[in-house]
Amino acid sequence: MAEFIEVAKASEIPSGGLKVVTVKGHEILLTNVEGKLYAMSRRCGHMNAPLEDGVLKGKELTCPMHGSRFDVTTGRKLSEPVMAPPPGADKLPPEFLQFMGKIGQLMAKITTLDCPAYTVTVEGDSVKVSV
User: Mapping DSSP to helix (H, G, I), strand (E, B) and coil, where does residue 74 land?
Assistant: First the structure.
């Protein structure tokens, strides 16, 4: 039988909100999608970026580092990274742009993995996660 560990209060995570907790060495991102709580790894499945700094729209979370998107209800990858130069990049020194292009080529070869998801239960205001 799965062990559920209390990790937060439901009142701490408003609809559309995110909260990071650590349980038995697992860094977990709690999300509230229209009043229902979900839990997945807080690290992006592409390059380990902290997903709590990303943007949550509905059940889709966009990585702040490379734009990969994940379904927070399952942890599944919805898209690969978006490798696009930032606005104004054309004003940067050509050597720097060439270097960044090479970095982009290397990063594009890194496989984006699904993020592990965890089972959540809510009892009153107590949020519990099974790890």
Answer: coil
Strands of 60-62's sheet in order across: 55-57, 60-62, 69-71, 77-79
- Is 12 within 8 Å of 18 (Cβ atoms)? no
- Answer yes or no: pTM beyond 0.70: yes
Q: Which domains does the chain have, with CATH numbers?
A: 4-82+112-125 (2.102.10.10)
23 Cβ neighbours under 8 A, 6+ residues apart: 5, 7, 129, 131
Q: How far is the CA of 95 from the CAs of 100, 101, 106, 115, 121, in angstroms?
A: 9, 10, 17, 35, 52
| CA atoms of 38 and 117, how far apart (whole Å) | 8
Cα torsion at 96, 97, 100, 102 (round to 10°)?
-110
pLDDT tens-digit profile, the chain (131 residues): 678 999 999 999 999 999 999 999 999 999 999 999 999 999 999 889 999 999 999 999 999 988 899 999 999 999 988 776 667 777 888 898 888 888 888 888 888 999 999 999 999 999 999 99
